[in-house]
Design brief:
The protein is mainly beta. It has a single domain (2-113), classed as Jelly Rolls (Sandwich), CATH 2.60.120.1140. The chain is 9% helix and 41% strand. The protein contains two helices and nine strands. The strands form two sheets. Strands 6-5-8-3-2-1-9 form a seven-stranded mixed β-sheet. Strand 1 and strand 2 (14-21) form a beta hairpin. It is globular. The relative contact order is 0.29. The model has no long low-confidence stretch (mean pLDDT 87).
């Protein structure tokens, strides 16, 4: 998995440290039996229109994103053993429960990638 930075919101943007799961095996495993992401970090799965939380250790916030970077749907506090998706999504950002609210993520926002491999919040 490749680490990179994702910028959320403008102005006063927040940067997240994101691991990108692009290979089939990485996408299949996701956060199954993994520690939940820490605050300010997440897992980006692409391509992906739907995810399940089977085998995940706790609730997640799931942010479904279009190819353009537009947030399509935010599912907060999704408990284990559930399925969520968005038909037009190209990717999903998996976050620790509560992070989407803390970051102010909502449908219609745009996310963009940064070259800062450390990501991290400003």
């Amino acid at each position: 998995m490749r680490r990179t930075g994702l910028v959320v919101g403008e102005p006063g943007a927040v940067r997240l440290r994101v691991r990108r799961a692009a290979r089939v095996v990485e996408r299949l495993i996701g956060l199954i039996a993994q520690p939940l992401p820490v605050a300010g970090a997440g897992l980006w799965i692409e391509p992906c229109r739907a995810v399940h939380t089977l085998g995940v250790r706790g609730p997640l916030d799931l942010v479904f994103v279009a190819r353009s970077g537009e947030v399509l749907r935010v599912c907060e506090g999704v408990p284990p053993r559930r399925v969520r998706g968005a038909l037009r999504a190209r990717a999903v950002l998996e976050l620790r429960a509560g992070e989407a609210h803390r970051l102010g993520l909502r449908p219609g926002m745009r996310l963009r990638w940064t070259d800062d491999p450390k990501g991290g919040q400003r």
